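Task card 7
Instruction: Convert sequence to structure tokens.
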Amino acid sequence: MTFASASRAFPALETDLKRVREILGLAGVPGRSDLAALTREPPGGNRRLIRPTLALLSYYLLAGPERAADVRAVKAAAAVELLHMASLYHDDVIDDARQRRGRPSANSVWGERLAVLAGDLLFVSGSRLLAELGRSEALAVAETVQRTCSGMIAETADRFLLSRTEDAYLEVTGAKTAELLSVACRLGAMQAGRGPEAEEALARFGWHTGMAYQVRDDILDLTATSGELGKPANSDIPEGVYTLPVIKALAREPALARLLRRGVTAADAERARRLVLSCGAVDEARTVADAHMETALRQLDGLGDPRSREGLADYVRSIMSSAGHAGPALVTAPPPAPPPSPAQVDVRARVQERLDAWLLDTGLAATPEEARHPRWHGIASATALMWPGADAEQLETLARWMLVCIVLDDLFDEPGLADPGEVVRLRNRLAPLIRGLDDTPPTGGAVATALAQSWERIRLTQPPSWRTRALDHLLEWLEAAEREACHRLSGFVPGLRDQVPLRLGSAGVPVFLDSFEMTYGTELESSVRDHPLVRRLLDLGTATVLAENDLRTLDQDEAAGAPYNLVRVLRHATGCTRQEAIDEVTRRVEDGYAQVDAILTSGPAILWPAGGGADSVPAIGLLRIVRERLPGWRAIHDVDRYSRSSTGSGTYLARLRRELLLDPVETGAAR
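Output:
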């Protein structure tokens, strides 16, 4: 029975489920529209509302299929769905699941902390509804939740346990899955007021339905594809959760036990799956599921009228046929960066030619060979990736500013800078140059001239509020660069807790975001900049990009004594081997980009209903722009600070540093 045929058998179902959804929509953070989607958007996309539907159908079966549900029945249906959603949020965090039913999980999009807290809020919201219904309903659900939690604990404690028995599996399955479907049917029946015998019969019906559903789901984990499941297939075996087919196969295939262990490889997990499939264990498990389904249907005998009984039976059969089938999958891979058109190539070439001349004119480069240093040459192409569609004037403005920022950062990494006192003097010399940019542009010296000329272009395009914030960010970056240089010279390596804030500071993330705003076309509103999803995207994306860069430059960082490289910090903090640290950072990078993509993929759909108006639109536009430009931004890593040229990468930096540390009058005279 599809939903449409269920609606024909129970005419009030569609309207009553709409009433349920209205109650579900009230479970949120008061006064925070930006967080509305956190609890309103379920893990895995559109709600199937199986448990509320079972509650309502149980009510109709006893109260009559033609009448709309009593408000108490609607509240009961909503309560059980809130409890179910809470368990999904918590389960996905515990399992570190990144997908549910083919879509990003809540913890992938919002992060673990918000996902756990949202699950708590949903649980309390459901409990409040039950308290409004009365002591009997609240007590029935409390007992169910107690058994469910006990079952989850038992299953977790039994991970990788080769001696796990069928009875242990069935007991856990009854607790963690069947109990919630059972209580859904019980709650619906309680509101019809037909007595404890009918309530018990429907509770047994729900319990056996849940048993059949879970056994079938465990079978699908072994037999279905990832696309059909909406999550990775064959995930139970690597996690050490030995389900009924595996337990039965262990009794038949001695070789299987040798494959089942902690840290099982993907190849071993696949071999184990094939052993389970080939020995007949799946067919035996399917027989168990079918037996529970038959037992469930027998519980309906004598309840309601024949048409209603058949309608309810058809609905649960449809649940079984659709179990494990994911909803429509979202496209998760970012679109590849399109190759530049001939016109774009021509613009980039002209801008690079202008930049080369500007480097010589300001004195940043003393010779044409220095101007062609890999760190500088090609910056036009890098900025074009950040700003698709920009004209030559726009690209040159952004490229000049990025070049100046690169020089300022590189000055503190220059190999010849070996005196901490000189590091401090360098920052003290640069700070007043930057502070005066918006009032009295600095003169004298290559760096001062380049700062003044690049900022003069920015003054023509960016509002005063942006300029004030951008200069403050640049000064903060200088402080972080000074700190990192001193840490490098002293041999200091931070702990894991401090690595991220120190790395973010020395990377100049706010400066990069200011540069992005130049390409965005307007200053970001605080409601967009401060939106929880946007902030999570920036934090997660930045940490991932920096970790990826740490892998790319590890050899050079180790030789230079770079203090904040994540691989070095992990080795220092944990005592692990170099390869173990590399493997861990690689895993973090892969997982980080997967979560970034989850935010970029799901963000627009989540944000659109969350604000309910214009406030959400800029954030949607921002996420879409980031998604479009992500491939280009990642490619900017090709311009790394360890590039070498025929003249040597330290030549111009040593010259510029000496020039900066001269008295300003001497510098002006020298020029």
